[in-house]
Predict the 3D structure of the following.
Amino acid sequence: MLAQQINTLFQQRYGYRPLLVRAPGRVNLIGEHTDYNGGFVLPAAIDKEILFAVGLNGLSTARLFSYDMQEAYDLRLESEPVQPGKTLWANYLKGVVAQFQRRGIAVPGFDCVFGGNVPIGAGLSSSAALECGLAFALNQLLEANLSRLELAYMGQRAEHEFAGVQCGIMDQFASLHGQSGHVVRLDCRSMEYQYFPFNSAAYHLVLCNSGVKHSLASSAYNTRRQECEQGVAVLRRHHPQVASLRDATLEQVEQHRAELGPVVYRRCRYVVQENLRVEATCQYLQAGDMAAVGQQMYASHAGLRDDYEVSCAELDALVQIAHSQPGVLGARMMGGGFGGCTINLLPAAVVPAFIATTTAAYQQQLGLVLETYQTTIVEGVSVLPPALATH
């Protein structure tokens, strides 16, 4: 058991008992590219997680150890503000320390051993789990009494400033606010949120990793943001209440189609429709209509492929393979696009057949090996009882 190994390694290295914390990765059921448009997302925390053993050491140094990389990093905490460095994994943790310092919370020396099973680069937010786990542990040890939402913002800022990734708030929010057996609808403008039931025993979310990441992902992401801003500027001239695409209606987008131009029109139409799909999905979850949830997922993928144009041949093939199997309720690409994973909704009983069929078809059609991850929806970041780490 990983928690036991991390706990044992900490005590061997540092000679005392740590606080044990687990921080989950996340999936997003539906609501893609809506976050930076002030819209809605529907994520959940999953049972792929990073485990931390953390304790105050009475020194003026943070001694960090990556269990997965088998690599140590020492960080002096005396007078200088913490700065990013060349060790990439350490930057995420240093970024969190910097956020505490910025709030005037002195961070004394501490020890930290961490390791996990969140696949790197699969779009399950391993970086957010890393940030949120340490932030949560330090909040406990320093008795800083920061809320989970404040910790999420600190994780987000750590990623902006120390990893150079301008992420939205969804990943950190989901890692900290997850609830077992529920997805959470987050309003990315007001930060209000609401939980909706998801029967994890009867239905599973299986992720299929395309194994590719096309180079245009980051530049295309920035372009999409600019295109959405252009759309808002056009719509606001006629409808002053449109502060973001979240405020726009399909009627308004259609009405100004010519002025928007073909590309910006399609981008705006996708975002407005995707927000409507999140709302519809929540109603179907409430009613227990999982087949209807699946149809929203397929519609989301079609919009991402045709209107937002952030899919790729590998993701489209995976969704098509899923669609051809009678047991599968829904599938779509998840994340920024141009590679990464598809998320697939299916009854628990058909999971083994789905994985076998999809793996074989992907290999046959594209000559690529498929990695799949079965996930269960779990609680957000939490303290592990010491007993759990000794079994």
